[in-house]
Every structure is written in structure tokens, then in C-alpha cells.
Amino acid sequence: MRTRLNHIRVITAAALRESVRRKDLYVALLLAAFAMGVELAFIRIGLPGLTTLLRDMTLTVVNILATMGCIILAARQLPEEISRRTLYPLLARPIRRTDVLLGKFLAVWLLSGLLLGALAGGAWLYLRTLGMGYGPIFWQYVLLRLLSFGVISALVMTLSLLTTPGATILLGAMLTLGATFFAQSIVLGYPASGRGLQFVLQWIYYAAPHLDLLDLSRKTAYNWPPLSAGVILTLAGYALAYAGVFLAWGAARFRKMAI
Fold this sequence. Notes:
single chain; 11 helices; 0% strand
């Protein structure tokens, strides 16, 4: 067990260094700075009273950029290792494919967390200097977004073993950024459906991960009171369970792949 944990640690560290070297995260930070600059311009040209709207817009920027950063990082990990043939020296050693997958997953999750921390921290400071700061629920928003990135990382890495990198990024964006719209569409279409279709829609609704449950951006924009510790723990368990399911699926697929 100690040897396996050491293998995972080394793979995670190597993936972190490689991802930082590609400078993908810096692009997201620059885009966030640009978007917040545009918001500041809106304030100066005559929109000073829309505090809630600006809070919501800022968190929307954070959500989109951090989520896309997580998707791109996850989609590139294993396919690039395979295409560049740098995976073969790893597998030639007594290292399990599952350990490679876990190491890559942890690297993506950590990098996504760093990106989220930088973007959310910048948003917090930015609005605080404008006198439009967030309440205590902001820190719960950050925690739940971080947990959602565990689910997204596991899902996208599994998709990357099933399809091409471009299709993985597209599917990942559709399944994560469009998760709320998808869930609402099922709810709206359910009453008008037949009994058989209702059964299918109900099964899909409860089986699919509801990432919208892990998004408190709207509540944060309106400065709702913080959620109770029990609710946070329940949502954390929900996120970790789905991340485990997707990782198990990815590990099963990775073990069967002919590389």
C-alpha cells in the first residue's frame, strides 16, 4: 500500500509540473481580469446600483472559467501521455494503471482548486474594494465548487478514455455547464410525457449527477445565510460518491485499453 501511495504521489507531482508548464491556467486568470475590468467600466458609466447583478456576473465568470479550466486539464492528461508515448515508461515499471489514473485525477483536482482559489479570491477582493462584498456563504460556495470539480475531473478523465480530446471537451462542457438546464428540462417535460417516458425521465433525473446542487453562486450573490453543517456534509458525500463512481468506471476502461 505504501508503494502504491508513493507511485500516486510521484505521478500527481509530475502531472502538476507539466500542467503548470503549459500555462493554461494563466489564460483563465487573464480572461477573468478582463471580464472584471469590463464590469468596473459598467459601474463607472452609470450602473452603480446593481450590486446583486454584479455579484452574480462576477461569480458567473468565476464558474465558467474555472469549470472550463478543469475540463481542459482533465481532457488532456491521459490522451497526451498516450499520444506522446510518455505513458509507456510508467507502465513498464511496477505501476498499476489505476494508480496512474488516480495520480492524474489528483493533479487535475488540485490545479482546478488552485485556479478556483485564485479566481474566487480575486472576485472577493475585487467586490470588497467596491463595497459590494459577499457574506459568509461565499466560503461555502468555494468549498462546494471545489467538490464539484472532483466530480467533473473524474467524469471528463473517463470520457477522455472513450472518445477524442475535442469531443471530450465538448461533452464535458455540455454535461457540466448545461447540467442545470438539463435538469430543468426534465422537470418541465415530465408532466406532459407518457407513463413509460416518465419512468425513463425519472430514472435519468435521479441517476445523473446534479452539479447544480453544488453551485451556491445565486444564493451567494443574494447573500443568503450560510447552509447548515449537515447540509454541507451531505452534499460533500454526494459529490465524493459520484467522483468515486466515475473513477471506478474510468479505471475499468483504462485497464482494458490496448495501449
